Amino acid sequence: xxxxxxxxxxxxxxxxxxxxxxxxxxxxxxxxxxxxxxxxxxxxxxxxxxxxxxxxxxxxxxxxxxxxxxxxxxxxxxxxxxxxxxxxxxxxxxxxxxxxxxxxxxxxxxxxxxxxxxxxxxxxxxxxxxxxxxxxxxxxxxxxxxxxxxxxxxxxxxxxxxxxxxxxxxxxxxxxxxxxxxxxxxxxxxxxxxxxxxxxxxxxxxxxxxxxxxxxxxxxxxxxxxxxxxxxxxxxxxxxxxxxxxxxxxxxxxxxxxxxxxxxxxxxxxxxxxxxxxxxxxxxxxxxxxxxxxxxxxxxxxxxxxxxxxxxxxxxxxxxxxxxxxxxxxxxxxxxxxxxxxxxxxxxxxxxxxxxxxxxxxxxxxxxxxxxxxxxxxxxxxxxxxxxxxxxxxxxxxxxxxxxxxxxxxxxxxxxxxxxxxxxxxxxxxxxxxxxxxxxxxxxxxxxxxxxxxxxxxxxxxxxxxxxxxxxxxxxxxxxxxxxxxxxxxxxxxxxxxxxxxxxxxxxxxxxxxxxxxxxxxxxxxxxxxxxxxxxxxxxxxxxxxxxxxxxxxxxxxxxxxxxxxxxxxxxxxxxxxxxxxxxxxxxxxxxxxxxxxxxxxxxxxxxxxxxxxxxxxxxxxxxxxxxxxxxxx
Length: 634
Hints:
alpha+beta; Rossmann fold; single chain; 8-stranded mixed β-sheet; 36% strand; 4-stranded antiparallel β-sheet
């Protein structure tokens, strides 16, 4: 019997399409039921990270009845960064600090180990800096972890008492190891303090340098050994191009290309249950897809069958049992936040486990469509256009929404609460992965270096003009809104293009580049200071020329500013400086929203409802239906 005929998947008939219902703002910003799931090696339990406003908690569920058998909560601002099943009964988890919704977690945080019911919990000393290299299933009491202390070290960690034994070291300032199937360290790779990226191979007791390049140059990252324990899977990006998956013979350096998208790097990899065969590569080029590089492997056929059963959806996998009999997977889309299932390979059945946001109705959401634009200097950039549900896709009001970061970060196809809210209120939303964004090869990232305020802004302008020329967007109803770096881009756009936009919103944005060197947590670390030196315009004159706060005289657009009083990543001093500069030329932001208890991105539901209520009113005033009617009568 074919696999697809045996799939018993929980599907539901969609109700009649609802046109025009305003979905309540709180529906988009209520905490989801989970952010990630991990299946235990025996398939009997599921570790689930659950967001709860000012924290996340960890719960372990029994997969047979979905009852909670263990739960961990470390309090306000403490968030679970990762969870790893060390064996069937014991798990490791990192707990970090995160103050705002746009913040990164501060390091990986403390590392704990616990039995799945909460007993036997220990705090592992120095665990904040450990990363898991190998789970060593032949020895359930230990795992291999790495840590960098000026030199990279590989340790064997006892998961019951937290004690470590040094296994190996390598000449890498900050990096990791790859071991073979005999658990011997064979590769070390990472970044040196000066930004160089290096890869070493171990031959006997000697480390040999096999790759070295400056920041964001050609990439060469070993992923794992093939089943013969000789050939190595390597992710390689020549001259900074998007990475391709190669199979390399270390003895001869002969390379065989197994997979490449050509536009984007691989997003993730799918391995066999014994970790000896790389089955497939996922690419997020437009709508995500999987490229199977070992299609005849029995497990690959099962995975491929599951993916085929959900056309037009993104399918991701959350762990497979040691014997390959069960695996967890998630199904989601641009209009569907997603559900988690447990698949039984013997019966061919998928059992529903969890929904992310079951109150969201996919038939009411708006489609996110991949777009590409050729810029004025010939570079092709990619992104997404979300068109309001039920519209004809012509002469739409547009909100340009540049992502934060900016370097190494990108926008993806998938459910985005903020974008869906704006589309639900009738606005098209454009999210472009401008130069400097991640996922398109290292040279694309470095193309944004020292181009803050210049070509990175031109990418946004060219993208908007492309939509206008095609009749998709009404040129008289365009606003721009972004958060963090996106806030910088939103304000810098109305400096460079004062007649293109009808309004702008900066949310926890950077408005003075010189101020980045004096305030904020980035410049507190040497790596952060080195990064700023590499990516920001050079010299005081260039920094000021590409700062919104030093160019307020050019701004003609109504401004709304949003900030949190406790923001450490981009201190509120950035907003105050911009406001003072505006006042100096007789201008005043039309709306300012400050929440003293919030940080780099609001978390409280009530605060978010207030924020987006005011933001929607701001957009509606300048590019909503009323503004269109007013323009038509002029």
